[in-house]
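**User:**
Make up any protein.

**Assistant:**
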Amino acid sequence: MALMITDECINCDVCEPECPNQAISMGEEYYVIDHRRCTECVGHFDEPQCVQVCPVACIPINPEHVESRETLWQKYQRLQKLAAG
């Protein structure tokens, strides 16, 4: 289950640096999450860090990208291999 940022985002800039997978970036109007890189922090933390720091609670699960914890773990492992080169 990748996360998404809704249009309630106030562009406060606190979520982007918290993402260990660099899945968050500025979109046309507000921050967006790349579902291909979002592991909901599986492999890094117990809870999604962006959700923890968001002051307006605008980061729900993306219903278009529902993934099991095992799938998120596999994505984390794949991203780690890519980062290692």
Summary: Residues 42 and 73 are 6 Å apart (CA to CA). DSSP finds two helices and two strands in the chain. The first strand starts at residue 24 and ends at 26. Helices lie at 49-53, 69-84.
